[in-house]
Amino acid sequence: MRSKSAIFSPTHLCAVLLCAGTVLLVANAFAHEGERTAPATTNGRAAHSALPQIAPIGVPIKNHLPIPEHAQGPALDAKKGYRLQELGAGLFMISDNIYQSMFLVYETGVVVADAPPSYAARIVQGIREVTDKPITHLIYSHSHIDHIGGAKQLGAVPNIIAHTETKRLLARAKDPNRPLPSITFEDRYTLNVGTKVLDLSYHGVAHEPGNIFIYAPDQQTLMVIDVVFPGWMPWRRFALAQDVPGYFSQVAEIGKVPFKTLIAGHVARTGTPADVELQLQFMTDLKTAAGRALSDVKPGEGLAQPALTNPWAVFDDYIDRVAAQCVSELTPKWASKLAAFDVYIWDQCYAMEQSLRID
Ligand SMILES: [Zn+2]
């Protein structure tokens, strides 16, 4: 850890180990008023003996750890509000440096994959920088509104392609901004347009049911959204993966695809096989650390009555101490390797211990 100010200071440490909103106001008071001792209103929650240096969930981080160089991406033209990245043979990534989607220009039209609402209004403008051809196909990577909720802003698109599970979820959502797909598939779908090809495939539930791989073989580009975060800590709780073991195997599966460029849906740059490998290493270390903490930490240790007769309290205390040990173990190796380690490491440890206990 390089920035001392990013660290939860010792006087903060004596205040809390948070996991719920009951103590949130107290924690906020600490963060905003600086150093002071614990007030008497922490509803009896005592400090754990070996608290990590990274501020726990609910405590604002005053100064975040620096973003490592390798996690940074090309600058955005603020006036345009989007960035095009040419990937060869008619394929382009379009991004606002927070979200990412792509489009493929072929002989008589354009295929768009995803339309994040944050810049969907500018996708057509981006396409018009390179071609006047009409948008003939829209592919949904998955059903989530933050990646496809701008679909209507592309105008009327004749063909919308998605996995059957995505169609089911969209039918349930009844969202006018996410029109139902007109073409669905189960395992594989090859889209041949002119001389161009996109291979769509399904690899089971990780992030959510219906989330697909979109592979452009000629450009060696793979688009898989919300699973890998190039250079960055995954978004909180493995990006809210609905199946954590499925998420672990899917990251490994992504690593086996012969791609050079990964469009992962977020952050300012595209990914590489090395990014996938780094995230896998982190996940392996996280699994090991959480597993070790689950067996090292003893439930109820150090607790007094009446907490000991409150099973929820005993469990809450146990899980907090498990997460604390997990965070402490990972911090020396990973705090400067993945951007925003300090933002989400507690979330990852809580998600990991939970999955190891119940999945
Ligand atoms: Zn998503």
The level-1 CATH class of the largest domain: Alpha Beta
Distance between the termini: 32 Å
As a whole number of angstroms, the C-alpha radius of gyration is 23 Å
Counting DSSP H or I runs of 4 or more residues, the number of helices is: 10
Helix content: 25-40%
| Overall pLDDT | 89
Pick out the low-confidence regions.
Answer: 1-42
User: How does the helix and strand content classify structurally?
Assistant: alpha/beta
Number of domains: 2
Small molecules in complex: zinc ion
Strand content: 15-25%
Please state the overall shape, judged from the principal axes of the Cα atoms: elongated
The strands making up the biggest β-sheet line up spatially as 1-2-3-4-5-6-7
Tally of extended strands?
12
CATH A-level architecture of the largest domain: 4-Layer Sandwich
The H/E string reads HHEEEEHEHEHEEEEEHHEHHH
**How would you sum up the major sheet?**
7 strands, mixed
**CATH homology-level superfamily of the largest domain:** Ribonuclease Z/Hydroxyacylglutathione hydrolase-like
- CATH topology type of the largest domain: Metallo-beta-lactamase, Chain A
